[in-house]
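ARCHIVE CARD
SHELF: 3
SLOT: left
DATA:
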Amino acid sequence: MKTLSLLIITLFIVTGCTPKQEAPAPQPETEEMSLFEDITPTELDEIAAGDPDVIILDVRTDEEVAEGMIEGAIQIDYRSPDFRDKIAELDSSKTYIVYCRSGGRSSATCEILTQELGFENVKNLEGGYSAYSESE
């Protein structure tokens, strides 16, 4: 009986007298900060208006470009095997406004330019050429 009492007292001390471990508070979900800015077609016109340090970069295919292109843009096909080599040759001191047909490839290009290549002035045209051509 004495042993049982000691066991109960020991269990009480070990389990009952120690502070409860609370589950850690959930951390707020943080959205990954983007290093580039999304802009509208109207903002593109305002930013690019006659500024020689602003380069409009079209990352669509030749077939897509044949349907129309933003005036003054340069094309580097996102699907081209040497795409990364070509964008790595761009002047990182310039401001780039990147677009594709609807925004997917241009957003991916903006991530490569900012996160991998260290470009600081990069903007993505929301909705791509589709949004731009509808806004005219």
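SLOT: right
DATA:
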Amino acid sequence: MEEGIEGRKIGEKLNLKIAPEKGYGVRNDEFVQQVPKTAFGDQEIQPGMQFEAGTEEQRYIVTVTAIEDDMITVDGNHPLAGVELNFDVEIISVREATGDELAHGHVHGPDGHHDH
């Protein structure tokens, strides 16, 4: 989004289209796996449920997409992976980035960065 609004003036209105590569990424079929139901213990599993998975070094969220017999299909893609994002934007104010924002690589709210 920053690329799309760079150099714009107060009062400008525009529609931004953000390709998956610049948004939540493209879908990766390797992130879809079948897991035995036994991996979830006694918990009743339903499509749409989300779980944290991975290793101690790298954690990620998987979404249950299907349940068939004794296997559960989980998808580690972000729900918006592969989706073109569309935003209607109006520029209402413009300011220079703060030193903290430049150092952290993202915008902070009016009260600073809080916890992130």
